[in-house]
Amino acid sequence: MKTRRQVSQPLSARLKPVSGAVAMAIGSMAVIPVSQPLADEIYDEIFVTATRRETSVQDIPYNISAIGAGELQQLRGVSNIGGLARWVPGMVSVDQGARASSPLIMRGISVDDLTFSESSGGNSNGNTVATYVGEVPVYIDLVTKDLARVEILRGPQGTLFGANSLAGAVRYIPNRPNFSEFEVDLHSKVYDIDESGDTSYDLDGVVNLPITDRLAVRGVLSYEDRAGFVDQKYLVREPGFSVPEPDFSDPVDVSDNLRRDKDVNDVETWYARTSLAWDATDDISLLATYHYQDKDVGGRQINTQDSLELIQQDQGVAIPTGFYDNGLRFDEHNEQTNHILEFVATFDFGFAELTSATGYIDYEDDGQRDQTDLLLTFGYTYADYPTFSSFTSEKASEETFTQELRLVSTGDGPWNWIGGFFYSDAERDFRSEEYTPCMYNTDQTCPIGPFGVPSGADVPEITNLPNSGADLTGTDIEYIQDEHQESEEWAIFGE
How far apart are CA 414 and CA 417, in angstroms? Predict the structure, then answer.
């Protein structure tokens, strides 16, 4: 086995045109045919709160795009911010799949992934674009179900939206509970994706229940099963025993050591939201909201054809590769779970309106990454052992508390003003355990001896190991990384 570099590139999904049309035609109980122009109501005037007061989008002195409920209803194929980016000028989303998420580029300034960063942990590192769910700042690629609108503000937004908003801000504004009408709204969608062997489908429903003329509750439940379209042909059958780079000219040797898994980059997403609104008086309004989102990803959406070509050059044989082939040796499943609690109280004093927005965010990430090719490039003589393979198990968690107090003038005079205070307290934990199966394990669980050497043979010395000097005998763990971060922020802002 020779040391080699890993080469990968992202892949994009492509809906089949006919399937997409069928999905639009039969997927919803209240559907509008594909050929029909967009409904008149989507052209109604949209009011936004980007300036922290309700204003028509046409009167906002910022570069802002607002996608209202009518447009979101029409764009049934759009279920996240990556899909919305195709409709928003100045914002681009690079589709890297749900495992790595899709970086946003706004006005030419790129930002971090919309999910947990594999290198540093946590999911609140928005970098240059802030995202808000209601009044809570949280960096998340939220499912776009039952939203009143999505506001996209381009350009620096530091005064009203604080840190991580150098390039702009994205705000998800959910529909509030309706005091006057009982509602039930159900939708379904079935579609195919090119190169996928399975069918994808979405189901979602909304229920609004008025309790009194001042108290109402609203619930949303959504499930999305998006089929994968990338195959992994070279997964090791038995880590520590199987050869990750067998003799590719011998089909039997390949079959004995490697296995294949189809459509690995599938995604299952559950989203739920419950809101309770109470207008205690004409001047006091209270809103409590809970969001839950769980995203279970089967594998990474990448192409490693170039890496496989390097192996092909070494062995002098042709390795069957394709554009939708992922050559990693281990599956890279990942699960991301978000819990978001929001409590907003609004008090109207006549001359100004006071808003108290309290948020609590709990985020968990549990996944696995292949390390085989990466470690082979480090020069630790791993390449001398034919059965060497490696993967990491990674877990991350984050808890964040936020509190904002904001006083906004409501008069019609020539002067308008805003003043407020913001506080955030975050705690993040990240743990990565790197496994090298059977490299150090001397018990009977390994089919062969330590370091991939048959039992009874001399065990060679491995130098320059990451944990040099540590006694790792009897364990498959080679390297452990533990991180704990605590951060506290506060700000006073005004305009």
Answer: 10
